[in-house]
Amino acid sequence: MNTAPAVQPAIGGQEGEDSLYPIAVLIDELRNEDVQLRLNSIRKLSTIALALGVERTRKELIQFLTDTIYDEDEVLLALAEQLGNFTPLVGGPEYVHCLLPPLENLANIEETVVRDKAVESLQKIAEKHSAAQLEEYFIPMVLRLASGDWFTSRTSSCGLFSVAYGRANPARKTELRGAFRSLCRDDTPMVRRAAASKLGEFAKVQESDYLKNDVVQIFEDLAKDEQDSVRLLSVEAGIVIVGLLRDDATKLAHVKPIVKELVQDKSWRVRYMAAVKIVEIQQAFGDKIPIEEMVGWYTGLLKDCEGEVRDAAAEKLQAFCAALPEEGRKRGITGEILPVIKPLTTDANQHVKIALAHVVMGLAPLLGNQSTVEHLLPIFLAMLRDDTPEVSNVIGADELQYSLLPAIIDLAQDGKWRVRLALVEYMPLLAEQLGQKFFDEKLLKLCMNWLTDHGMILFFLRFYFLVYAIREAATNILKQLAEKFGADWAVKSVLPRVIELAADSNYLHRMTCLFCFNTLAEALGKEHVLHEMFPTIKTLCNDSVPNVRFNVAKTLTRIGKVLDAQTVNTEIKPLVSKMGEDQEFDVRYFAEEAKEVGFVMRLCQILFASARVVRSSAGSRLGSPKGRQAISLTQAAVARIKELIKQKPGAKALKIGVQQRGCSGLTYTLEYADQKGRLDEEVEQDGVIIWIDSKAQLTLIGSEMDFERSKLAAEFIFHNPNIKSTCGCGESFSMDTPTLNITGEPSTIKEIKNEKFINPQS
Prior knowledge:
protein phosphatase regulator activity, Hypothetical Protein Aq_1857, Chain: A, iron-sulfur cluster binding, 64% helix, alpha+beta, 8% strand, four-stranded mixed sheet, PP2A/SF3B1-like_HEAT, Leucine-rich Repeat Variant
């Protein structure tokens, strides 16, 4: 048995012995029973070698270390690392081959980390060998390891072929190719895994002919291996091979289906590896694959049934999109990728959402400002509302400030008014998610500037009478902000700028002031309306422009809903009477609509009563007296509504609306709904829910909804005491309701099946 070498003093006397004493201690510790002492000594192996000299290091120390493979794994790991740096300590490259025996032994060790470190050191010293030494010592060692009885040596050998092949002679190269091919077909999966993981490195040093034939065939075999652990390691090899074959269209066409099969492999672990490497796959193919096909591979991973695969794919979103060819990039992102990304914002796996939150902001520079607001902003807002803190905190105010705010500011001055309008409609959502402080600092000024946006004002005026839904959506923005941040905030931050518009020389700006009053009145309440708004309204009552004056009449009607009866009589009625004598017909016309204070109050009472019913009877059935409900349902209607809701997944209620249609002017509509409108009234009875549109509420008070089925038809019937008359078929009706500008008296009304909404027979 070999023993640790002894140190002989190189100089005489006590001084020489004293200087070598520490080295002697280190050498003794190499064979100490204490593992920690042996480990410390191994870590100072270079010091021992320097003390021994290069010749004794080669002949004694290396021989001793070669026989030390029985030691603890921690000691062997340190030894494997030290030997990789030992070339100068054994006499330089001329003697580097003497380091092969101990490293070869370490490459056979069962512990993986020790073997890997030994292979790493062997790769490092391989380049120190001359061509002759490589063929005489290094390549025979590689072949011995590759043909060893234990799988440990065969797995270690896989990492050495690439460093040995380049300088080998043709005969040795043939041997090395044959040995590697055998390893790829080894009976042991661990060996095939090691070969698959090193195939890419070996492919890089292969001659072109062997690459196109031998290597491609080996890759195909590994990509179809029965073990998914082998197939997943072949993904990286495929990336290297594709890159090497990019200029050979024939071979690339042969390899592409193999890579595609790996991306769509039956094993989720292989698909996971493909998702992790998808950007490298994309870059390897470059422009040799259509953008639509590559995007299809990627979106398939984003839609994978396994959360781990979706997670890995989502992490690569920004990098993948950035690597797409500039021509067609935006189309691929907005048309193919984002429709798949949107469902991931509500993914059941929170890791997917977290991964998405970290990268989705990176798409903004790729899409440009308009597409960012149009396509990304809804995704940002959805993630801001997420219940998972790790998601919502990532998409925070700071991130939005740097990624989104520049796009918002740029589009705020866009030449197309439709673009600006789309941006305006996002403001309440942004305000809700980002908070008052951020909104006041970054976005409030932008919103206030929109009040004098000429394009939007013309848009509002153009459609004011024709498109109620658009007008309502646009003018509700200020109200939503006031409801979110409170009346005091609106009075302090919004109202002063609005009131300034009343003195503007542009009459459109003065009308905008009135539009804002109409919207804000309900949110601000009686006191603020009376003390902040009303003085300005009185001033505009005498405006020189008739359009402004008749809009004052409309505004008086709107604020009358907020004020009490006494205030209406003392403040509003005198103004309305005065405007009723205006020289302009339009002003007199609209003043006439609001002239009777009794009508104003009656309208207020109806609306407030409706609101009180909703609040006081929330959660109760409609079995209460009819005076306290907008509509009651018969048992037949309840049963049919339950059937309809059951047939429509996602629907939560039926919504009743009213529209201009039919012989008599108006007809009710029924449609499925999954979300209650802000102004809708909710009626719940026997487990079914009805939502009544704000325009239909006044026509339905006190009505009963029934359902009848006959041989000819199945239909809902509204027994309505408010209507005056119906057409012959019972489809449409008329009423005497000033707000609807029609006349009526009690009767019944049938709402027959309407294929646009709900077919009761379906």
